[in-house]
Amino acid sequence: MPSSPMPTDRLSTVDEHVERILDALVPLPPYDQPLLESLGLPVCEDVSAPMDLPSFDNSAMDGYAVYFDDVASASTDHPVHLPVVGEMAAGQTRMLALSPGTTVRIMTGAPVPQGADSVVPVEWTDGGVANVRITRAPTRGQHVRYRGEDVRTGDVLLEDGTILGPRQLGLLASVGRAQVAARPRPRVVIMSTGSELREPGTGLGHDSIYDANSYMLAAAARSAGAIAYRVGIVSDDPQEFSDALSDQLVRADLVVTSGGVSKGQYDVVKEVLTELGTVSFGEVAMQPGKPQGFGFVGEDDTPILTLPGNPVSSYVSFEVFVVPAIRRMMGRLPYRRPLVRALLGQGLSSAPGRRQFVRARFGIDGKGAHVQPVGGHGSHLVGDLSDANALIEVPEDVTSLSPGDQVQVLVLDRDF
Ligand SMILES: Nc1nc2c(c(=O)[nH]1)N[C@H]1C(S)=C(S)[C@@H](COP(=O)(O)OP(=O)(O)OC[C@H]3O[C@@H](n4cnc5c(N)ncnc54)[C@H](O)[C@@H]3O)O[C@H]1N2
Ligand code: MOO
Fold first, then answer.
1. What's this model's pTM, rounded to 2 decimal places?
2. Ligand 2 mutation pick, 261, 290, 305, 357, max ligand atoms within 8 A of CB
3. Could you tell me which residue ranges the MoaB/Mog domain spans (predicted)?
C-alpha cells in the first residue's frame, strides 16, 4: 500500500502527517457480525424493516379486553358486568376471537382477540375471574398497541453509516435480526521496545523501568474501538525486534510500536524498519511527539505507526495519529477528535513552529467551558498525564497565551 514518505529535510505539520496516514489506509471490508460484536461500529447497509412492530395488536395493560360499546356507559354508580370467558397471557394464548357481551382477562403484551377493540385496566374493575364488574370506561381503542404503529415493513430503520449503539441494536433485535453488516474492529498489535523495560509485577534493576506504554496504548486502542493485542517487551536487539514483528503480523490490521525512533545508538525500530524501505521516519512539528514513523510491513502490507518512547509523547501521538487511523479502518467518522472551545484558566508559553499539546483539566460550569493546564512540559511526567482529561492544542504560531484567552481543546476519553 503506497504512502507518501515523510520528508527528511523539514518537519511535517501535524495535519500533513494525519492526512498522510488517512490517505494511505483503507476501511476494512464489512461482513455480517453478531449484534453485540457490532456495538460502536458503523452499520454498512441500509437496514429496512422485515416486519411490522408491534407485529400484532396487543394490550398495553393488565386488564380485560372488551368491545368498547359494551362498556361505554360504565361508571361507579352504574357499573357494567361482563362474563369472563378466558385469559390471554403474553406468549400463551389460545383464544383468537371474542364475542360481544363477553370479556377475557388479558395481560400486558398479549394479543388482543379479534373483535375486542379496547382494554379496561384491572384497576377499573373488581378483578373478577368468572364475572367482572367494570366501574370506568376506557375510550375506544384505549390501551391497545396496534400492529405497525411503531415500525412498518419496509421502513428504513438504520441508514448506512449509523453508529450501532444500544438503542440501534435493540431495534435490530426487535425485528429479528441476529446479525448486521459492519466493518470489523481493527486488530491493533502494540509493541514496546527498549532493553530497559521490565514487566510490571516483576523486579526492577537499578537502571530499568516498568513498561507503561504497552498498557497505556493497548488501553487507548481498546477505548478507540479496536481489538488490542499487547505484545510483551521487545529488547533493542534488531533480530529480536524483527522476529517479534514478523510473528505478530499474522494477527494485525495495524501495528503500533513505542520507542526506538529518535537519534540514539540503539533506536531499533528505526534501524530495522528503515532498511525495509517501506517505512519512513521523520519529524513532526509538534510537542510532544516529534519523532514519528509510518509505513507498511510484511507480505500483506500491514500498516505500522512507530511512536516515540517517552510515555507522554507516545500517548499524545496515539491520540493525534493512531485514533484517526483506527477510525478510518472502522469507517467511523469523524476520523479526528473534534476540538472544543474553552477559556484558559492560567497563562502558558509554547515553542514557536511546533503545535503544542498541553496536558490540562477541562470542565464546564455555569460560566461555560474552561481548561486549566496541569503539570510541566516533560514528556516523562506520567503523574501529570494521569491528572489530565484534555489536551490544549496551541497553534504553531502562538508562543504565549494569557488567562481568559479562548483556546481549542481535545477533550479525552469522550466518545465522538
Ligand atoms: N539527540 C536527540 N535525542 C533525542 C531527541 C532528539 O531530537 N535528539 N528527541 C527526543 C524526543 S523529543 C523523544 S520523544 C525521544 C524519543 O525517543 P525514542 O522513541 O527513541 O524512545 P526511547 O529512546 O526508546 O525512549 C525514550 C524515553 O522513554 C522511555 N520509555 C520508552 N519506552 C517506554 C515504555 N514502554 N514505558 C515507559 N517508558 C518508556 C525510555 O526509557 C526513555 O526514557 O527521544 C528524545 N531524544
Ligand atoms: O517530542 Mo518528544 O516527543 O518531546 O518528547
1. 0.90
2. 290
3. 189-328
